[in-house]
# Entry
Amino acid sequence: MRAIPALDSFRIYLTGFAWCCVLLLGLQTTHQAHAGDQAEVAGDTDGERTSEKLIPDQKSLAGMPATIINLAETFADTAVDTGEPLTLSVEHNTKEKVAVASIDQGLLTIGWGKVGKTEITVRAKNSVTNKIVDVRFNAKVWHPDYWMLAMTVLGGLGIFLLTCRKVCRRSPVVGCGG
# Structure
């Protein structure tokens, strides 16, 4: 037994619409960490040294001003926080042309540079307890690809309109007026 043509057409229409939505929603996906992810422990422990994910990955549009992160708030309630002043340092930066990280008076400043991606490691050391917490995060500088954006939107719109046309040809019940 064959399916009802109107339902077939409607299924094609919904499939086209779903593909359009997938294409449009997939344009601007970002991988931003949420505040609830700040307590995630990476699992790298070495005696008095631990590695934790306290700073979410940073992403900036090319040409944007520097990002400032308060490290006193970041390292509060961690293994190194005893109320004593911490020794803070930037231990590792894979590509300083992408982002320059510096610490001044407990504030981490990330100056954005060329388009690309880098990994930055910040270390907090408590000189009284000799405990160390390393925080590793990625920093990315990007610029929009307008050509890809336009082609994706036009492709999705084309699939949507083609599907609408096929639905109207197969079944006048859908309400295409013709």
